[in-house]
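Revision sheet: structure tokens.
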Amino acid sequence: MKTSKLWALAAVFGMAASVHGSSFTIDAINDTPTSTVSLTAGQGFSVSVDPTEIWSAGDLPRWSNANGLTTDLYATGSDASGQPVGTLIGQDWGLLTVGALTAPYGALVGEIDNGPFFLVGTSYTGTAATSGTLGLMYWDSNYPDNSGSITANVTVGSVPDGGLTAGLLGGALIGLGALRRKLAI
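Predicted:
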């Protein structure tokens, strides 16, 4: 009986933490963020990109994955660069500072409703500082020669209503107190 009550409590908390995900194509040539999902302040979310997906900031060697132009990258023969196997297609291009963010050229960055940019790269997990739409974009200072795109998978956790959270926590505390008293007898 005690175990079933604990499982029921866990199920209620589990429902409050449900998640949903969506995929979005982010083009390197766009100089404005691609709108993705709406977030509520305090809501947890994550963004992931396959590290083998690449995009370009222009002429060789400027191909990179969503982490940006941070290291030498060689063509695999099956990647988006179209170059022969072993060709140097990417290398470290340094950092670009815009506003409060300094990040590698070619990196995937995000912002929530024109707020400050933050580095996303191939994997990001965080909490929305404000409510608004998550925008994702290629980090560069010259967009006309960019090419390619990546697929960003965005997963969003639900934010329970404040009253629901308080009720769940209050109920859990009352239930645990009763269980403790029962066990003490």
